[in-house]
Amino acid sequence: MNIDKFKHQHIEIMEAVAELRNLVKSGVAEHAEQIARKIISMSGIIKLHLSVEDTVLYPALRKSRDPLHLALGNRYQSEMDGLAAAYMKFAGKWLSARQIADDADGFKYDANVVFKALHERIQKENAELYPALEQI
Q1: How large a percentage of the chain has pLDDT more than 90?
Q2: Alpha helices in 53-102 (DSSP H)
Q3: CA proximity to 132, closest of 52, 45, 50, 64
């Protein structure tokens, strides 16, 4: 299976996270508008990525005759449900530049939690999930 598009989306997501981190370091209140816009654009990429994982990647693993692929697909989909919900809650809470500027510390805390989980998931997918998919 060709998963180059998924790998590219991972790069786009991590670049967006890096841009957000730089904006936060430069001042949350001063860059609240840019931060809110970046979260909105990043959310579009993440929603698309999650949708295609659910409709293409996980079903491909479940169709494999290899029981390890089946288990991997089920596990990854199950794990992603929690992370997806956490990200969507984060994005919904911090879409407003005013909200971000008014609670910079709360934003930083929530962003660190979500971005750390996102980073770990992407690294895990790159190391384990994608090599399995490339075998199909």
Answers
A1: 82
A2: 58-63, 67-93, 97-102
A3: 64
**DSSP codes of every residue in 3-53:** -HHHHHHHHHHHHHHHHHHHHHHH-TTTTHHHHHHHHHHHHHHHHHHHHHI
- Structure letter (DSSP) for residue 127: I
Among 114, 106, 108, 91, which Cα is nearest to 27's? Answer: 108
User: How would you label 79-98 residue by residue, b for 16+ Cβ within 10 Å and e otherwise?
Assistant: ebeebbeebeebbeebeebe
More confident residue, 136 or 35: 35
For residues 99 and 94, give the distance between their C-alpha atoms in angstroms, rounded to a whole number.
6
User: For 48-61, what is the mean pLDDT?
Assistant: 91
Q: Residue 35 is encoded by which pair of tokens?
A: 């931060």
Contacts of 113-121 spanning 24+ positions with Cβ under 8 A: 113/86, 114/86, 114/87, 114/90, 115/17, 115/20, 115/21, 117/83, 117/86, 118/13, 118/17, 118/83, 118/87, 119/14, 119/17, 121/79, 121/80, 121/83
Per-residue model confidence (pLDDT) at position 28: 97
